Amino acid sequence: MNLENRICPICDNKEAVSLWNGYVKCVLCGCIYVKNVKSVSYEDNYYYFDSREKERLDMRAKKLFKILSKYVKNGFLIDYGCASGEFVNFAFKNGFEVVGTDISSYALKNADSNIQDKLLLLDDFKKKFNKKADVITMWDVLEHLDSPIDKLKELKPYLKIGGKIIISTPNVESFWAKFLKKEWHGFNIPQYHITYFNKKNITKIFNSASYKCISVYSINPMSPLFLIKNSAVGLTRVIFRKDKRILYAIVAGIIFIPDKILELIAPFFNFAETLIVVAENN
Predict the structure, then answer these.
(1) Where in the chain is the domain with CATH 3.40.50.150?
(2) What angle, rounded to 10 degrees, do the helices at 51-71 and 86-93 form?
(3) CA angle 185, 66, 189 (to 5 degrees)
(4) What is the pLDDT of the chain when averaged over all its residues?
């Protein structure tokens, strides 16, 4: 995917102000997007799988499933952009009929063996699959897309009338995003994360795709401890850009603060770095 001189993917406005790392901000709707996108691969150079990452993904799947279960208790679920299938696996173990699809064969091969027969490459899914779902989930997918409205329209035939679509995407108006700006971890991969949203404009894209928004809110999909430590690098870069010795010392100090102490600190910070949208197919 090579895209040059993109216009706003939400409102089609051509006017934008330059930010950093190739990102610009639409002057009308506030969408932050990459102006010029180079072709990338979602294979082994994008994903990595080790025990620590597995633990993080399992924790995330469990929390996202709690969100799902507030709106849909059972039925047939399609997880679009399932990666290595942690959420598919968790939903399957909790009684859902499931199918997961992803663009990356590498990610799918790293899924647990008990769900391998429930996963399809995206091309195969489009060619072979025609069953309508009770719910479609898209966890951290929209930010990768050039045309999020078109993708939402494309998924409508796979969803029953009255069925739910539930998505997550980075919250560009979170405390850390606004405070850290270009040092925010979300802005570190402009070759992959090419479109960012806020509550107002993400509601607009669902309305434009003829869905009825039920709820739009922000959460922290990881533990507060994880995000405190994850934000430490960006924070210290902002304060100590020139002296790397101080930077590394502070980062190391935060990383090794006992979790019990961080748990006392966490409630005083806004770590809602992820937007959740729950919508219904009309």
Answers:
(1) 41-170+197-221+270-281
(2) 50
(3) 15
(4) 83
Nearest to 8 by CA among 34, 27, 26: 26
The class that CATH gives domain 41-170+197-221+270-281 is alpha beta
Instruction: State how far the Cα of 142 lies from the Cα of 246, in Å rounded to an integer.
Output: 37
Query: Long-range contacts made by residues 66-75, C-beta under 8 angstroms, separation at least 24?
Result: 67/166, 67/219, 67/276, 68/135, 68/137, 68/166, 69/94, 71/135, 71/164, 71/166, 71/214, 71/278, 72/134, 72/135, 72/164, 72/166, 74/134, 75/133, 75/134, 75/135
Whether residue 279 contacts residue 165, with contact meaning beta carbons closer than 8 Å, is answered with: yes
Please write the tens of the pLDDT for every residue from 191-238: 889 999 999 999 999 999 999 999 998 877 655 555 555 555 455 554
Residue whose C-alpha is closest to residue 113's, from 92, 140, 136, 134 = 92
Mean local confidence (pLDDT), 239-261: 50
Torsion of CA 272, 273, 277, 278, to 10 degrees: -50
Min mean pLDDT across 99-113, 154-168, 246-260 is at 246-260
Its pTM stands at 0.82
Distance CA 176, CA 271 (A): 7
Q: Six-digit token pair at 93?
A: 């173990």
Q: Which run of H or of E encompasses 183? A: none
